[in-house]
Amino acid sequence: MNNSQVAHHFIYESSEAQGSNFSCNGSKLYSYSSLMATIDREKKIILIDERISHYSNSSQKHRSHLLRAIPSDYSVFEWYWKDGSFVEAQYNVILNLIEKQSRARKVDYSNQIAKLINLCNKYVELFQEEISSEDHILFDQINTIDIHELLLSSQHLIEASRARIMALKVKEQEKHQESRQKELNKFLGHSNVIYDPNYNSVYLKVIEDKLYTSNSITVKVMEAITLYKAYLAGKNILNARLGHYVVGKVSKESVTIGCTTISAIELNRVLSKYL
User: Fold this and answer.
1) Which of 80, 98, 121 is the last residue of a domain?
2) Higher pLDDT residue, 50 or 198?
3) Which of 270, 268, 256, 245 has its CA nearest to residue 200?
4) Contact criterion met (CB below 8 Å) for 211 and 273
5) β-bridge partners, 207
6) Domains held by the chain: number
């Protein structure tokens, strides 16, 4: 089956079909192994992940086959699925267009903004029962004012959107910090060291006669102490060996052994007690 036939098969049939790196099965259409689109044949709705078509020239051609096969009475919604829901994605696009409009001297984005608002209306109408409360808030925000008011209030909306995005970033950073802190606590066996996302070094621990790094390197602790003493004394330790590893870079701030960089702060924290 050629790829044009696969696209048409996807529209009209629920059985499996295979083309050249283009396939469908049930309500799902794939470009290579990536889910490109889903279909509801009863409601005549197709959702397309726009991101997939940018993977390769072949995926772009797969998208073209799909678009040509879609009947005119179908509703098609295409966006980057990783950017969240359709409403959220279009809301952000609208804000970007409003910001462009506020700076534009020759280009008028109002028609494009109006089309996106109408598209959001259509989507919400079709998926009324599945829309989240957050999407309803975003939808109401862009749907209760006309284009003129939208443009006049652009700065307020842009600032509100930026604040919301920043809050999400902070929340994500907090989750990342919490996750990495748990990993560090597990490695060290205690919670006395606070994980620093800007800390460009591995962490160290000593168990019996071994020195362990947080990137899974193990050396004899006595050899590490000998090298550490030479480092503190200002001796040239470049190209010195520590187990199977060679010192490749030395500075007041850190020592790089093999591919592992250890900060002077971490060396002092762990090894100074053995002096």
Assistant:
1) 80
2) 50
3) 256
4) no
5) 210
6) 3
Average pLDDT over residues 215-229: 94
Domain closes at, from 80, 97, 118: 80
pLDDT band at 153; cut points 50, 70, 90: low
Short-list 225, 207, 213, CA closest to 184: 213
8 Å CB contact between 217 and 245: yes
183: left (phi over 0), alpha (psi -120 to 50) or beta: alpha
Mean pLDDT of the chain: 88
Query: Which residues, other chains included, contact 266 with Cβ-Cβ below 8 Å and sequence gap of 6+?
Result: 201, 202, 203, 204
Domain containing 263 equals: 204-274
Q: Supply the pLDDT for residue 139.
A: 84
115 closest CA partner among 141, 85, 152, 77:
77
Same domain, 75 and 128: no
Q: How confident is the model at residue 233 (pLDDT cuts 50, 70, 90)?
A: very high
* In contact, 1 and 9? CB cutoff 8 Å: yes
Q: What is the largest CA-CA distance in the chain?
A: 80
Q: Is the dihedral of CA 113, 115, 118, 124 positive or negative?
A: negative
Exposure b/e, 180-213, CB count within 10 A at least 16 = b: eeeebeebbeeeebebeeeeebbbbeeeeeebbb
